[in-house]
Write a structure and sequence with these properties.
Layout lengths: L8 H11 L5 E12 L5 E11 L5 E8 L4 E7 L3 E9 L2 E12 L4 E10 L2 E4 L2 E9 L3 E8 L4 E3 L9 E2 L3 E5 L4 E9 L5 E10 L5 H33 L2 H129 L4 H45 L3 H13 L4 H8 L3 H13 L3 E6 L2 E6 L12
Parallel strand pairs: 1-10
Antiparallel strand pairs: 1-2, 2-7, 3-6, 4-7, 5-6, 8-9, 9-15, 10-14, 11-15, 12-15, 13-14, 16-17
Helix pairs in contact: 2-3, 3-4, 5-7, 6-7
């Protein structure tokens, strides 16, 4: 009989084929053990001895089984960060992430254990069949049959165990079937089948019941015999002997009642054991359901963490853009300041020229009225200079307005990226001028770790700074933000 999920072997072959490219990874030992219990549940263990021959560090290993499994456990000599299994079309994809990657020249031992339903049952004849991928390795597979199992042929003309190069052993209770060979990746896969049948086992409880029934029967026979003997003795002997026989009969009946009580106690104990087994089965089912819910919750939290990381990256990009904009605005501000300084110098020069012109005008008025024409021309020149001075003063006022607009724009840009809690902390620092973190915690009612995180963020952005007063650090607005007079909504 061929397993239903035989087509999934192709996936396994692709996986092992990819991992063995250019001889980068070597499988020194490859061992598979399947232990079958009397409830047809298969307990599987896969042992892999991996050697990184000449490749980059290996931080993740994927193994695909061609059947559904549960109760997965993975152990290794390397630290494992996470293990996940995904059920896809009847197969199970196991992903093992390692904290410490397998470096060049290092070995890694993996133990993968699981439970699975892999037994076909037809009219009491059971068949176990499994397929594993073949890689270059020393390969061993062992199948342990349940207690009371005997190897039988699945049908006329068919072999009970395949392939036939097996070794069979027993410890007197169970049968062990073992294959040992050198596998090559050219073999592609290894498939084994075992047909067996469970023999009838005598139930100890029924056996005890038979013994008790025989004892009860013997007691009844003895009672009847004593009754007959008593009646004969009653004819020939005195009434005292009859009384002794009656006592003997009563004792026998009491013994019978004791035995019945013991039987009832045994039956009650059996019922209790059955109830406990049912409760344990229900507990196992609930634990499985809870485990599935936890896995779903973990997947949900993982996706939420991914979304938060993406939002944080976008926020960092916005902050970087604002920082670049702030640098450009600072450069423009410096340029405006330089222009203002130049204009102030020109105004001083013009004031000096104006003063010299006025002195010359007074001198000309004293000297001669004949020079009125020259004086009028000079007055015109002075008027033009005054107009020029006024235009320079207007230009200076425009620059001052631009600087105020820039300062307002800069403050509003910085305030937009702040959260409500950050705005509240900045507002408190602005109101008090200088304040400690403890005072902010007492005023706002926020937790100390949250205030510490907000202060660290604001200090990192250059909005606030710390001033040391002895052993106490006080918070104040930075020099670049001290001038901001906008509203903090």
């Amino acid at each position: 009989m061929v397993p239903k999920n035989f087509k999934k072997i192709i996936i396994l072959l692709f996986f092992f084929g990819a991992i063995n490219i250019c001889g980068a990874i070597k499988f020194e030992n490859y061992e598979v053990i399947y232990d079958i219990d009397q409830n047809d549940l298969v307990h599987g263990t896969i042992y892999l001895d991996i050697y990184n021959n000449d490749s980059e560090d290996i931080s993740s290993i994927t193994y695909i089984l061609p059947q559904s499994i549960h109760n997965l456990k993975v152990t290794s000599n390397k630290n494992i960060s996470s293990v996940s299994d995904h059920q896809v079309d009847g197969s199970t994809k196991i992903i093992i992430d390692l904290k410490d990657p397998i470096k060049r020249g290092e070995r890694c031992y993996l133990n993968i254990s699981f439970d699975s339903d892999m037994i076909w049952d037809k009219n009491g004849r059971k068949m176990f069949s499994t397929t594993v991928p073949a890689v270059n390795s020393n390969f061993t597979m062992t199948v342990v049959l349940p207690m009371g199992a005997a190897v039988v042929s699945p049908a006329e003309g068919l072999l009970s165990i395949t392939p036939q190069d097996y070794i069979i052993n027993t410890d007197g209770k169970r049968i062990y079937i073992k294959w040992k060979r050198k596998l090559s990746k050219e073999d592609k896969y290894f498939t084994s089948t075992v047909s067996y049948k469970l023999q009838t086992v005598i139930n100890p409880i029924n056996q005890n019941s038979g013994i008790i029934d025989n004892m009860y029967y013997n007691i009844l026979v003895i009672v009847l015999a004593l009754m007959i003997v008593g009646s004969i003795y009653g004819i020939y002997y005195e009434k005292k002997k009859n009384m002794k026989n009656n006592k003997t009969i009563e004792e026998l009946f009491q013994e019978k009642e004791k035995l019945n009580n013991k039987i009832n106690n045994l039956l009650n104990n059996i019922d209790k054991l059955k109830l406990e087994m049912d409760l344990k089965d229900n507990t196992i089912l609930k634990l499985k359901e809870k485990n599935e819910e936890l896995l779903k919750e973990i997947n949900k939290l993982t996706s939420e963490l991914k979304e938060i990381k993406e939002k944080l990256i976008k926020r960092n990009e916005v902050v970087a853009g604002l920082k670049n904009l702030n640098e450009d605005l600072n450069k423009k501000l410096e340029d405006y300041k330089k222009e203002i300084m130049l204009l102030n110098l020109k105004i001083e020069e013009l004031n000096k020229v104006n003063k010299s012109y006025e002195e010359e005008l007074n001198t000309l008025n004293k000297l001669n009225n004949e020079n009125k024409k020259i004086i009028s021309e000079r007055e015109k020149t002075i008027e033009e200079l005054r107009n020029t001075l006024k235009s320079y003063e207007d230009t200076i006022n425009d620059l001052k307005c631009k600087i105020e607009d820039y300062e307002k724009t800069k403050g509003e840009l910085l305030m937009r990226i702040l959260t409500e809690d950050e705005k509240m902390v900045v507002k408190l620092i602005k109101e008090y001028g200088e304040i400690t973190q403890k005072e902010i915690v007492d005023i706002t009612g926020l937790t100390k770790p949250k205030i510490s995180r907000i202060v660290a963020d604001l200090e990192g952005r250059g909005i606030i700074k710390k001033i040391k007063f002895g052993r106490i650090n006080k918070l104040t607005l930075s020099d670049e933000f001290r001038w901001y007079n906008g509203k903090m909504e």
